[in-house]
């Protein structure tokens, strides 16, 4: 390893805060320059030596070097002699006895000086007995003590601590292993069990630096070694595995070192903000997203290798070194594999010379529910043969048969598909899958890389087949259970995003890949056409449900004509729901689920009626009115007063709302005794998975902007809006809202607060809102405002699509522009896709006519001007 050139300045003889800060700043500048030329290993060791010298100087300034009852010890990463530019400096000050008042003052001044120098210091002052007791009680403290290093002070006291820590009664190998494994499991759970997060934590992420350290800690505790290199001699890991771990660690260290330099603090989260600059520091270039993609693809390959090695070596340690698997029951599976406890194990080292055994391994896992994983010896073989593969596994006919058998197996999408993804066998089988491994998605809509998103989609599809999840999505469960060929759904899931990152329309390119797959695997023409259609149209249902008015019979008819039959509808519905849920754990909500379900049921009804006989709009109005009338009359309202109210309401109202909603609105309007006063209703219980806000009041200028501004001030997200003005000049506006966490508003006090805010907005008593600044993540995205005019179903209406950055107060600003341009809003569809808002408005002029060319041009210019100014600000 190339050593760092020493930093050649000595510390000032007398402590001066400014002088020391200057010295540290010079070292940081030297580190930045040296990073381009020297190994990262030498640089982290150079900073540890630099801090050693700093501590020695300050220790002496406080006359602590004259006190032989104290010992200054580096622990944790600093104990290993490794410090990144802004890493914490963890110190243990060991004392023979309780501190005197003078010692307390000296040590307080020592630590204060470190803080004054803006160093992140973690310190503890303890006696030997206190240190040992805390170490026995806390695995984190015990781990830090394992890597301690004496800096200054009483050497004999340090040796006593060192001997006590290495004694078997401090932590046995078994206890230490179990504690570290549990600690790792908890840490992985915080990251949803995946290494493929788009903003990973370089230390804590699965496959990150902590996983490398854990591999070393458990073995070093057992063998009483200090370095990973020594473990090769104990046959805990092979020379190749040691070199691979060191290579992975070096790359993660490079990223972490560059991240610290870029952030200017101890930052381990590789946030979108830092990714371009870190990539440039690492030499990947400066050509925007392509630079980041190159860096992150290598990162995800690295953490995948670390995850494999971590699992294999910890399992090897438990089974072969601690002998915890000696009593495992052994059961033969075939001529090549056996069941060893709950792990599948190859019978000899040449088992994978037959390439189809790579697939048969996973077929056995699907076929035997007792198998939970792969034995460490077999995982070693799998990793070795995977590196030597020439061509793709799908080139072998026997492999193709086994792959389809897995897709058709009732448990093929359970443990098998997860392990095939985890251990790179999916990438070895499908060349297109290799392209999406670690493929970034530069938006706030997706939380995972393309391959991990697809893996999660497949797991969602599999859940539909399991009885224990029947109550989760009962309609999907029912559909999948009745499917004759659910494997077609799984194959469509595999290919739906497989062409991302290639340029062009990924849906069309993916459909072509799916057709080629079907041809190679000799699927029927019908199955091939269904899979490729699902891949090509996998966004159709989501786009229709979230961006169009699905209560408009014409929208349903157009969607049904594209889908063509109920079989395709069933497959598409299940795929769409699983796809949306796999993008980001925080984005799914019951409102989206209700939209998809309503569209599915409406389209199913259209198919069963026959597309040539669509439901007439007048039939739907009469049907909804008849049911609402019946329910209202049961509440003692007369038919005359009901019909008098309805005579003032436009016909569209009775299409856009179901009978229960009509009753909810009308019963309150009929009881409302002060017609000039606003009526605001907020649903106390969720309606179709959301909270619905209904406003009935005389129309007035800029009402929409004031209403959405009031809702914005209450920190609720608007998902839909129906804006309607009656024949008598009253508005009947409905807003579908959810809390920021995607849940309906349920707190009674919160409901009342929203209601009061809206009443004040209608009365004009609310000052204009000062909108929040863009969040950290939002500031990384550039979404230039775009305004489009789309053909509508009414000659008196114009459909406007507005795409822009989802900045705080966006809807209120749009409403202000509509008011300024004398535009009336009749309906709004609010769609947020991560950082991007795509909102649709049905509008007209003040004279209730569609916008002509000049009016459209003026509106477009004004909107873009206002929204560009906002996003730039």
UniProtKB/TrEMBL annotation:
One BP term from GO: regulation of nitrogen utilization
Domain ACT intervals: 692-773, 799-873
Swiss-Prot/TrEMBL keywords: Hydrolase, Magnesium, Multifunctional enzyme, Nucleotidyltransferase, Repeat, Transferase
Region entry Uridylyltransferase, spans: 1-332
GO MF: [protein-PII] uridylyltransferase activity; guanosine-3',5'-bis(diphosphate) 3'-diphosphatase activity; phosphoric diester hydrolase activity
EC number: 2.7.7.59, 3.1.4.-
Documented activity regulation: Uridylyltransferase (UTase) activity is inhibited by glutamine, while glutamine activates uridylyl-removing (UR) activity.
Annotated region described as Uridylyl-removing, given as residue ranges: 333-691
Cofactor(s) annotated in UniProt: Mg(2+)
Reactions listed under catalytic activity: [protein-PII]-L-tyrosine + UTP = [protein-PII]-uridylyl-L-tyrosine + diphosphate; [protein-PII]-uridylyl-L-tyrosine + H2O = [protein-PII]-L-tyrosine + UMP + H(+); guanosine 3',5'-bis(diphosphate) + H2O = GDP + diphosphate + H(+)
Keyword Transferase: yes
CDD domains the record matches: ACT_ACR-UUR-like_2, ACT_UUR-like_1, HDc, NT_GlnE_GlnD_like
Kinase is among the record's keywords: no
SMART domains named among the record's database cross-references: HDc (SM00471)
Top-level taxon of origin: Bacteria
Record PROSITE patterns: ACT, HD
NCBIfam families for this protein: PRK01759.1, UTase_glnD
Function: Modifies, by uridylylation and deuridylylation, the PII regulatory proteins (GlnB and homologs), in response to the nitrogen status of the cell that GlnD senses through the glutamine level. Under low glutamine levels, catalyzes the conversion of the PII proteins and UTP to PII-UMP and PPi, while under higher glutamine levels, GlnD hydrolyzes PII-UMP to PII and UMP (deuridylylation). Thus, controls uridylylation state and activity of the PII proteins, and plays an important role in the regulation of nitrogen metabolism.
Domain notes: Has four distinct domains: an N-terminal nucleotidyltransferase (NT) domain responsible for UTase activity, a central HD domain that encodes UR activity, and two C-terminal ACT domains that seem to have a role in glutamine sensing.
Similarity comment text for this entry: Belongs to the GlnD family.
Protein name: Bifunctional uridylyltransferase/uridylyl-removing enzyme
